[in-house]
Amino acid sequence: MNIGFQKNKRSKIQSKTMEEVIAITKSEQLRKLCSDIDEALKAGDNEKVDALKNQLPGVTWNRSYPEGAPRKKDTGTPTGLVMRDDDSCETEEQLNNLICTFKNLALTNEFVKNHLVRGVISPRRHGVHTLWLWPDGCTSISDVLERIAKETGLDDYDHSCCDNSRLTFLVSDDRVFYVSDMLYHTDAAAELQTKQEVLGKKTLMRKKKVEKATAPAVEQSEKTEKAHDISYPLTYNDIAYDSIISALVKKICSKKQLDAFGNPSQGNRHLTWLKCCSHLRTICDNNPSWLYQLAPQWAFDSPGNDVMQTCVDACEEKMTYGISKVLQGVLANLESETFVKDESGKVTFESWLENFNKNHKAPALPPVLSTIMKGMPEPYFQSALAHLICMFGSICFSKVRARYLDGKIKAPNLQVIIEAPSQSGKGNFKSLYDDLFSRVKKNDEVKLTIENEWKQRAEKKQGVKELEDRPHFVMQTAGINISATKLMDILNDNHDVHLYVFEEEILTARRELRKSYGLSYDHIRKAFDNGDVYQNNKSAQSSTGRFRVFLNYTFTGTVEDTDRFIKGEIEGGTANRIMWCVIPEQKREGYLVRLPEGDELDEIRNKIDEWVADYTYYQDDEGTDIIRDEIEINLDYLLQPLNEWNLMQWDYGELQKNHARKTVRYRYAQMGFIAGMVAHLMWGCPDAKDKKTRQNVIDLARYFATMGIERYLHKYGDDQNEIHKQSKKKEVKKDNKTPLDYVGLNFTKDDLQAALKRCGIKSPIRIVIHRYKKQNIIVDTKNGKYRKNV
């Protein structure tokens, strides 16, 4: 019998046997982790307790899942086990009394004796978790928990713990207070659970039919309102579902079956919506609630039509295909119509932005960002947001760290490229940088002047021992033409403080990155996760050693220059480490950009100075730069929403057969995490009580990840998928098999023709046969067949 297992809350689901799970509870690592939790509890450090608790492994006692499968309540295989959570003990005495009660019941109560298999103290020591075999007569977990309460007389348990897929933290074996041999023999209980869950579903369906027949009619407005309360994506592959439904209706119905508005006429509406749902369910996760949300008004206007039941009926049909040919044709036509293209056949930036903005609501912004962005026209929103997150993360919050989904500590790393036609307003992003961070830039210029003066003295005093050491400063800004040696000096002096580079001509950036002695593509690739670079310079004045790259940048440029910049870097992974943004071509009336000025600008600069001093570095009374220690913040509340976003991107990739989406989702989820980190800090680090602000942070993080992945896939998705396809072909060819390996000892010309096709060989069959006969590899048997010469 297997059980669902996760190494921690952020890891993928695995399938483990009961023996393997119990072995984990006996591991020294888990024992140490539980011991650390106990120490933190004694110290009253709740934040540390939460952080340590989230590192505990977890199990889904009620379900086992295939490796890497999504953990959903109605999927997986029943195990025959149910976990009950009694977690209301406020004192150690109450906890001990509860443990004694369960031990006594296991000796005296026949039901408990036959069904209780394990009892442990919960991670926070607020109660106990008990594990039970599935009893006869129960069709759901809530039934089981009620039955246990009735048989034991203990009703003070967590009634909400009735989800099949619930993850329970695993604790070390020194917290176990009861265990039964039945724990390893639950096959009969699993079989019983499976049968009774099926029985329960059938009973529930019969009950719903009775309720449907006897329930009073619900007002149409209530149904429509309820439908739009549910939040599901409104687009598929950048195509609005409304457009897909309209096109499907035209495919399904004849002209006689449509009314003057192009909707199905009365009498055809129920059947038409059922057919639409049968096609749509393959791109709606076979989810009736999703289909219900998408239902058009004409579906509700059909007399006596229960729209939700129609959606359910469609989803219960046997699925014998993926995306139907009818829907494939509709999507292909809509895809070509969705975007406006220029004379060269490329989608215009304005069209892409309008399409994205129509389907993705812009998030709320922290006060400082909101003040800056109020002067930005709508088409500039995405680009300005990415530019600001990149700059503020690099300059203001450089020493902040947070633990991400992969369990690793992340810094606020971000790389942004903004594409725009000529004369479209790229200079506004340079103005934004110059205006907001003028004090930071001026401070760096003073430091450069001091360093240049030192260099002049050094040249005059060559060979003189009394020359003072090179001055060491924190440098936060630089130009694209920085040399590799100078970069190493800055990385050495900065001690993991970011360097920020802005370049308004990406062609200049390309030229500089291709020089052997300057900033390189390797540097910007490694900056994504602060990888290491090395320098071993002969000069005593240069830094030598290994340095982690902390570098953020914003480049702007035309489409042509950008394509030159990234040419050859898609396969290497440079392209999908970048947040790609666009601004459209200027209209006749132009786009008016108003940047902060006067007192408003001074307030923002003062806030920037404050954040730099709090989260990056400050200067003491003697003018020495004092770098802050790393400041780790807890962003666990961001992890689950971003993990759900990740899983959703995988599902979309499967539906769209888009390998690139499944591959790059991790990196764009990380960029969303960085945006959430910066927003969290700019909002003043909201605590768990400030749910509204935390939700705003989550919304911004998901929006940022979405705008990144959608733009990347639109620009480079086809290229990456083609690279993947070609690599797969190469893998097939690498098996070193010849066509003769795919035919028998005796074979016909047709057999060999099929083998040639399988190996990807396009040579004419007669030439291949002639070559094989000449090499004495095959022999002609004169009866229409050939034989291998073995």
Task: Characterize the structure shown.
The protein has 29 helices and 27 strands. The strands form nine sheets. It has a five-stranded parallel β-sheet with strand order 16-17-20-15-21, with helices on both faces. It has a four-stranded antiparallel β-sheet with strand order 2-1-3-9. Strands 6-8-7-10 form a four-stranded antiparallel β-sheet. It is about 50% helix and about 15% strand. The protein is of the alpha+beta class and about 800 residues long.
What distinguishing features does this structure have?
single chain; 790 residues; alpha+beta; five-stranded parallel beta sheet; four-stranded antiparallel beta sheet; 29 helices; 49% helix; 13% strand; globular
- Shape field: globular
| Total count of strands | 27
What Rg, in angstroms, do the CA atoms define?
A: 32 Å
Low-confidence stretches: 213-230
Residue-averaged pLDDT: 84
What oligomeric state is this?
single chain
Number of helices: 29
Q: How far is the first residue's CA from the last residue's CA?
A: 50 Å
Strand content: 5-15%
| SS-derived structural category | alpha+beta
What does the main sheet amount to? 5 strands, parallel
Strand order of the largest sheet: 16-17-20-15-21
Helix fraction, binned, reads: 40-55%
How do the helices and strands line up, and which of them pair or pack?
Blueprint: E1 2-6, E2 14-17, H1 18-25, H2 28-43, H3 46-53, E3 58-60, E4 63-64, E5 77-78, E6 81-86, H4 92-108, H5 110-115, E7 116-121, E8 128-133, H6 141-152, E9 168-169, E10 176-179, H7 187-214, H8 220-229, E11 235-236, E12 239-240, H9 241-252, H10 269-280, H11 288-294, H12 297-300, H13 307-316, H14 325-338, H15 349-359, H16 367-373, H17 381-395, E13 400-403, E14 409-410, E15 415-419, H18 427-436, H19 438-460, E16 477-478, H20 484-494, E17 499-503, H21 506-513, H22 521-526, E18 532-535, E19 545-548, E20 551-557, H23 559-566, E21 579-582, H24 598-615, E22 617-619, E23 625-627, E24 631-633, H25 636-656, H26 659-682, H27 691-733, E25 746-748, H28 749-758, H29 765-774, E26 778-780, E27 785-788
Parallel strand pairs: 13-24, 15-20, 15-21, 16-17, 17-20
Antiparallel strand pairs: 1-2, 1-3, 3-9, 4-5, 6-8, 7-8, 7-10, 11-12, 13-14, 18-19, 22-23, 25-27, 26-27
